[in-house]
Amino acid sequence: MLKLNRRTLMTGVATAALATVLTGAPMRAIAEEPVRGGTLSVHMPQEQRTLNPALRASTGVYVIASKIMEPLMDLDEQGALVPMLATSWEGSEDGLTYTFKLREGVKWHDGTPFTSADVQFTAMELWKKYQNYGTALHANLVSVETPDDHTAVFTYSRPMPADLLFGAIPDLGYISPRHIYEGTDILANPANVAPIGTGPFKFDQYERGQYVIAVRNEDYWRAGFPYLDRIIWRFISDKAAAAAALESGQVHMSNYSSLSLADMDRLSKDDRFEVSARGNTRQPFQNTVEFNNRRENLKDVRVRRAIIHALDTDFFIENFLYGNGNRAQGPIPKASDKFFKEGRVDYEYDVDKANALLDEAGFERGGDGTRFELTMHVPPFGEDIPLWATFVQQSLDAVGIKVRILNVDAATYLKEVYGEWNFDLSTGWHIFRADPAISTMVWYRSGSPDGTAFTNQWGWTDPKADEMIDAAASELDTEKRRAMYPDIVDRLNTELPIWMAIDRSFMSTTSEKVRNHHNNPRWPSSHWADVWVVE
Amino acid sequence: MLILQLAVKRLMSSIPTLLILLVGLFLLLQLAPGDTVDALIAQLGGGSAETAEELRRYYGLDGSTMARLLDYLWRLVRLDLGFSAIYDKPVATVIFERLPVTLLLMVLSLSFAFIMGMLLGIISARKVNGWLDTILSLLGMVFYATPAFWLGLMSIVIFSIRLGWLPPGGYYDILAGNTGLAHVWDVTRHMLQPTVTLALIYMAIYLRIMRASMLEVSTLDFVRTARAKGLSRNQIIRHHILRNALLPMITIMGLQAGAILGGSVVIESVFSLPGIGKLAYESVIQRDLNMLLGIVFVSALMVIVVNFVVDLIYAYLDPRITSEKV
Amino acid sequence: MNVLRYFARSPAAMFGLVLLGCIIGFALFADVLYPKNPLGLAGRPLQWPDLTSRFLLGTDASGRDIAAQLVHGARTTLIMAGVSTVIAIAIGIVIGAIAGFYGGWVDNLLMRITEAFQTLPNFILLLVLVVVVGSTMTSVTLAIGVVSWPPVARLTRAEFLSLRSREFVQACRAIGLRNRWIIFREILPNALPPIIVYGSVVMALAILLESSLAFLELSDPNVASWGNLIGHGRKVLRSEWYVAAIPGGAILLTILAVNLVGQGLNDALNPRLRNR
To answer: Is the torsion defined by CA of B200, B202, B205, B211 positive or negative?
Structure first.
């Protein structure tokens, strides 16, 4: 697996302005002269309900819409912030106001000029009101002032760490056109499925169940870009069929691990394709083991620890994931070099210890060797999830815990695990979004409303952890703040309400015909203005 | 005009059936855990409680079951199938976009299965219990016993990947921008694999029925009479046996219309065809109740129409029935 | 006896019977052949079949012995298919018999319900049922039974319609036998042969339906079943095709056996064919 050592993100007015996204020196030799024109064909595994990332922040939306719409800032190949719609950004000492200078001469795809009014409207009406994670991030956003057409000043009622806000913007900072949305029912606006943006490609058509097409924006603010004439995203839900489409040349690439593990392994040995985690480091995810801490047996931390001790995670990674992954050390993945620290509280594979802990907790083996039975809810998010669940089932069998797997669809999973707490064990993905305060600490912090998906609904509260999490979320000093998280991780790993077992990275499979690809840490979700295709 | 009257009558008499179906399914799906908002939140990788509440209001999921059922039926009376949660479009629009693919798949594979089954059935019956009969029957049964998705996947491996003759999926080549004959040819190439896969599986039934009917009919009096009159074997087959043997085959075709719609769920998923079957599966998984009910409504109508056509063909083929009806 | 003799004269039917016997044998002796939990971790995942190794038929993507799953899966599949067939036939017979025997509004109502079930593609109904009741083997079996009865009901009704005006039924009525007695003791035994033959079709369809559910990952993952194995195999189809091919072959052979036996019975029971 490829590991990128990213330099730390820069805050405040960035020297990053010097770096430009477009120098994005690709890893392969750059002797080739880019060819203009051509069509890039991309695999999409799932139909999208909306294509507006200012409303819905998810990889499925980005992979299409980030070519059409743009965020205030993006990342360069080292992971440093670079200007997009904002040319400079600056926060006040007290963390209450943030000023963004906006790019001049940018036009929406319908010809209307882009101004600070669009930023103001998007932040107040879309991010704050509807965007998943945006509603939490901007909960304390009071107003956005627009002193002139190219300046937007955000005011928060409570201090907002610059690191957190700027770190979130490449994903959560997409801008929608005010003149299209104002005075309409925002969720029902037709532009949600036919997006209008400022990006290098213009939305052309969305044929449900078949494809989305975007075509070159001739008036793009970066002169000379994009290279491609067209991008087409084809919906292929069957993984085997998608691999076949890649091999027959029908599509050029497949992002976000949308092929089967076996096919990715097979294609990685095929010269016609590059299969790697390159350009995906910004969006690491983890395989989880989630406990319902309300259950009589799982309530006991010794039982939870015993369960983790019984899992030979390294064996699983090596043999089931084709070596793609690392044993995790808590909820902050290794890929997050800002917040990760080596050598935290861990639970090594040790069946004897697991058995001893279970005995000690008073759950002796019965006549047939069984201590107790548990159910495990398994959602269909990825192929690795049922594999991992099966492995947990097999491993726990060895320490006398019988697990009954319940394969459920996404709606059932959310309802039964998060809504009704009607589960014993469950597993799924924890997706890390740049900063632990965005979507990670909510897995542990108490007080999320009942039923909120991917938050602490485990029947576990720890005032000490809550206090530590809150302190880190409002710490304005970047260095101090970063140093606080490893201690939080230790606390969470010791108390063990849930366990983040494996650090993973999304994998992309790309045809060798594609150039300038995967040259920034969130590449599948970035603009693709500099991509070109060799015929 | 008579046909039109019959059609209207038939449709009216199907209304209770449709009503049982839609109300039953509506209530059944209320028992399913989670709703379309849960499915959406999962797709997004999470969202706050406010977001979820806002979305439930937006999708009209905040009323009581009874109120929503009555609302749905009232809309149905006005021929309004409602709005789809997944597609942000009227259900009717989405269904009519997808319908041609499934119809084409159904018509092509049924015709193919029917014709091949008929021909092979005749051959089988003429050589009854001979080695050719045994091989054909066995082959038919082997295909019949093969899971459709397995046959489809294997076909892709061989014809699209190893040999590279046919596209592995999709309805037509979007990038080519073909029109006219070129487009027809393109669609044909894309539909060949799914059609043949489905046809091979359904062929066995026609083969078996054709063979059985041929054997059965050939012992009847009128065939003996014809033989006595000195008609040639082929003439007898064409004019007498075939006409009668077709009746049960047509009946099966009517019955299979529904089954094929179900089978298309799997086939459309294997070949990435944007049809009704795949849509139905997605609607169940995503809890898009309006869409699912819409599909059931439309496919029920289709089954009713097919059966009506079957009756017409019946009347045409069997003069006794015609004389009764007229 | 005549029927059995005719059945035994057909090589295809006998072949089917022997095949079915073998499969039932595997199912019966699964615990003897592979006493360990077939879903347990047996070794490194995705080992190729090798007759000289510990794993005759290799291991699947979860490191489970395919041979063990195949043998235990035979049991699951046969029980699942058998029970759902019995359910479908039981519902079908009761509804068909009542409709055919009583006629009138009862017939009308029951046939409307049957029609409603038939108008809806059965796989779609199955999907909905499984989503509602969950994916345990019991609920999958029940659900398959519940979606498979309408043709049985129609067949039974047709038989009853033709039998109820026969002399022996008239005679029963004349001597004042109760309706329930006439339905189940007098008419049903006469109507049963074609229904039993149709049972083979229901059973074959049940196996296919379960494998399609497993293909869509909606079947029970806690039991060894051929469908689940195909579901796992689907993901490694291109490189380790044997994972799906082996259970696929098992399904094919089982359905083939069931059909051959069914057709043999059908031919044997059909008097016109016998005279040829």
So the answer is: negative
* Element containing residue A377 per DSSP (H, E): strand A372-378
Specify the amino acid at residue B193.
Answer: Q
| Residue of A266, A395, A406 lying closest to C238 (CB–CB) | A266
Q: What pLDDT, on the 0 to 100 scale, is given for residue C6? A: 76
Q: Identity (one letter) of the amino acid at C112?
A: R
Class of domain A285-504: alpha beta
C-interface mutation test, from A320, A377, A381, A402, most C Cβ less than 10 A away? A320
> How does pLDDT run across A166-202, given as a tens digit for each residue?
999 999 999 999 999 999 888 888 898 899 999 999 9
Q: In chain A, what is the greatest distance between 2 CA atoms, to the nearest angstrom?
A: 78
- Hey, are the CB atoms on B272 and A250 less than 8 Å from each other? no
State whether B86 and B102 are in the same domain. no
- The residue type at B322: T
Which residues in chain B touch residue A58, judged by CB atoms under 8 angstroms apart? 43-45
What is the model's pTM? 0.81
**Digit-coded pLDDT (tens) for C212-233:** 888 888 888 888 888 888 888 8
C118 CB near a chain A CB, below 8 Å?
Answer: no
Which one of 2.60.40.10, 3.40.50.620, 3.30.200.20, 1.10.3720.10 gives the CATH number of domain C13-28+63-250? 1.10.3720.10
How sure is the predictor about C272, in pLDDT bands with cuts at 50, 70 and 90? low
d(CA C227, CA C254): 13
**ipTM of this complex prediction, to 2 decimal places:** 0.80
Chain B nearest C-alpha distance from C79 (Å): 18
The segments of chain A whose pLDDT lies below 50 read: 1-29
Residue window 173-232, chain B: list those with CB within 8 Å of chain C: 208, 212, 215-216, 219
Q: Does C238 sit within 8 Å of A412, measured CB to CB?
A: no
Count of pairs with CB atoms under 8 A, one residue in A, one in C = 67
User: How far A350 CA sits from the closest chain C CA (Å)?
Assistant: 17
| Cα–Cα nearest to A312, from A494, A501, A495 | A501
Q: Kindly tell me the burial class for residue A306, based on how many C-beta atoms sit within 10 Å of its own C-beta (0-12, 13-18, 19 or more).
A: buried
| Cβ pair A351, A399 in contact under 8 A | yes
A-proximal residues of C, 216-235, CB under 8 Å: 217-218, 221-222, 234-235
Domain final residue, candidates B90, B117, B141: B90
Could you check whether the bond before residue B167 is cis, i.e. omega within 30 degrees of 0?
no
CA distance B92 to chain A (A): 13
* Inter-residue contact A203 to A196 (CB < 8 Å): yes
Minimum-distance CB partner of A394 among C40, C46, C135: C40
